[in-house]
């Protein structure tokens, strides 16, 4: 029942994104026919191209045709390069997913480790130092973090490549720039939850049974402390995709973010609409997967649903 509700909301959200992107396309200060035909095209040619593109039809008819094409998976062609938008997105999707998932994994691992460590040493120098560092990281925009890492680690120390797409060495800098803010945030959440959970009766019972610290904190306390973090990961995925756009631009990463930025500068309406629509689909799918994971982690949700 819960998954059916989520599926229904996913359809509503995707429809809303489709309507919004379609409406905003009329605000772009560009004539699609002029972009396709070039600056020297005469009026008759422009009118013919508008008719072939369906731009002379009433707005509701245009929107209906747009939705019909979306259902078929047809995102149109770029006004600038004449490239198929869907093919362009699919070509760049692996690079974006590689960066996004690497960043998410790094944020979760670092956040859980720092939050657990500081919760076991409350008030110590490690706890205070991690807290101060987390506040500093949370106050710095992601693109400034990217530029800072690029300058210090890539340019001055030359430990990692300055940009481009390749193996693990190429993804470390952009993934770190994208992951640090989320790692700091998750670390504080895990820290707070662990301090609350360790005083629960089931944790005290585990201690009373003679279980070791690893079993008490790892199997009992940490698992329950991670439940809110699981929800936050799904909610933060949309913000993560927004950060990908800036990060890919800073590090010259050939993914959807760079594709979207280039489309905006070129006023390429189909490419802009396609990347926004596809990014919304990624966010919706990611949230549904997080809901499934939430059902696995917290049995109470399975029982209530």
Architecture overview:
- With 305 residues, the protein is an all-alpha fold.
- It folds into two domains: 31-74, no CATH class; 92-304, MetI-like fold (Orthogonal Bundle).
- Helices cover 78% and strands 0% of the residues.
- The chain has helices at 2-25, 32-37, 43-53, 59-71, 85-120, 125-138, 142-156, 168-197, 201-208, 213-225, 227-250, 256-265, 269-297, 299-304.
- Helix 11 (227-250) packs across helix 12 (256-265).
- It is elongated.
CATH superfamily of the largest domain: MetI-like
CATH architecture of the largest domain: Orthogonal Bundle
- Counting DSSP E segments of at least 2 residues, the number of strands comes to 0
CATH class of the largest domain: Mainly Alpha
Regarding quaternary structure, what we see is single chain
Parts with pLDDT < 50 across at least 5 consecutive residues? none
End-to-end separation in angstroms reads 6 Å
- How much is the average pLDDT? 82
Rg, Å, rounded: 24 Å
CATH fold call of the largest domain: MetI-like fold
- Structural class by sheet pairing and helices: mainly alpha
By DSSP (H or I, 4+ residues per run), the number of helices equals 14
Q: Tell me the series of helices and strands, N- to C-terminal.
A: HHHHHHHHHHHHHH
Main β-sheet: number of strands, strand sense, barrel status?
none
Helix content: over 70%
Q: How many structural units, i.e. domains?
A: 2
**Overall shape:** elongated
Percentage of β-strand residues: under 5%
Keyword list:
mainly alpha, 14 helices, 2 domains, 305 residues, MetI-like fold, single chain
